Amino acid sequence: MATELRETEVVVVGAGPVGLMLAGELRLAGADVIVLEELTEPMTDSRASQLNARTMEVFDQRGLLDILDRPEPEKGGHFGGIPLAVDGLDSVHSGYWKIPQYRTEAALWTWADKLGVTLLRGHRLTGLDEHADSIEAIAGPLRVRARYLVGCDGENSTVRQLAGFEFAGKDATKELLRADVSGVDIPNRRFERLDNGLAIAATRGGVTRVMMHPFGAPARDRDAAPAFDEITRTWAGITGEDISGGQPVWTDAFDNTTRQATEYRRGRVLLAGDAAHRMMPVGGQALNIGVQDAVNLGWKLAAELRGLALLDSYHDERHPVDARVLANVEAQALLLLGDQRSDAARSVFTELLRMETVRRHLGELVSGLDVRYDVGPGDHPLLGARMPHCAQELRDGRGVLFAPDPGEFVAAVVNRVDIVPGTTPALVRPDGHIAWIDGTRADLHAALDRWFGPPQAA
Fold this sequence. Notes:
Helix 1 (17-28) packs parallel to helix 3. The chain has helices spanning 17-28, 53-61, 101-115, 158-163, 228-239, 285-305, 312-337, 343-352, 356-367, 410-413, 441-452, and strands at 4-7, 10-13, 33-37, 50-51, 76-79, 82-85, 97-98, 118-121, 127-130, 135-139, 142-146, 148-151, 167-170, 175-182, 189-193, 197-204, 207-214, 247-255, 258-261, 265-266, 269-271, 277-278, 400-403, 418-421, 426-428, 434-437. The chain is of the alpha+beta class. Strands 8-3-2-12-21-20 form a six-stranded mixed beta sheet. Strands 15-16-17-14-18 form a five-stranded antiparallel beta sheet, covered by helices on one side.
């Protein structure tokens, strides 16, 4: 079979939400990109079905909410199964948005396709061939040569394995079974702790999602999704309810494995999303931080292609943020899956979550709203944090300087970022984080040079 060679600037492996978000970001910044995907057709499972406030802000920044069919947000969430209200946070998208993953992917592909992303389906990555100035992705007879390659291919990432990334952490000790089932009529159950285990059930659109954990049951080493018979037996053993007459739409098992790549970049290969970190999907945080990995990386990788050295800041910024999420997920798993011996800890957490400061702190944590990067000099409390309420100004994926008197800053900007009116002078990066705010002109020039390069000729 003849070898086909294609060339691009970046090859992204994986066309899930993270890969499509990254590909769109790269195209928005002017980079050529090819996405390789093993599946021949888009997935139709609901899988990750919860978007948090920060992800919705990011989607709003890129105009994705206009094409994303979305319900009203749910204001009630949880922390380890203990009720946690997430309304009233400093975001116009405060809350949880229950959107099946296939709908999120469909909206992202509509956006990415319009931007000119090339998606090649039915191509399974089998090898990498790195050279001094390029890297080749090998997928059967197809070879794609690029300057950089990003693995967005999930927790069992082929890219991560082929490139030799260390995936440090802890193996699973417990697991949850999960299934979407049609044709059953059972009560909704919200983190019900019964004598024999944990049971969760919620019906939306005629399909009931059930999740369960028998107390004390260890994780199993699985090479396939659990059979529906295992789902029905386990559910009956915990709740006494018979769901065997329903039709399984999808079954799954997930565990409390906690792992993170020790580095997000090795030469010309980078990782994002589940390829870089694996966690129990408590509260749907895995998909959300994966999307935010992509938004942090996309504009930086495109800038690197133009000669601006920003790529190492991707690991420096995202690795500690993702590690903190893994820690909060691990804490939640202890509360959620512990048997009756964890009741004392749950009681203490229940009391703490009645305090407004604790509720707001954990609400911002699980909603992705509290991320703050070390972006340079300055002591303003918002420096490095996300800039709220600026979605419209970031639609084009460019940096923005908000200024009370825009004309006063034209000479400083020199075509590097857009200037728009604003009550407080602030420089905002394409990912929505503040790189300079109400500081000295010297610090502004330093921030412009660092994040957007030297002045460009008109």
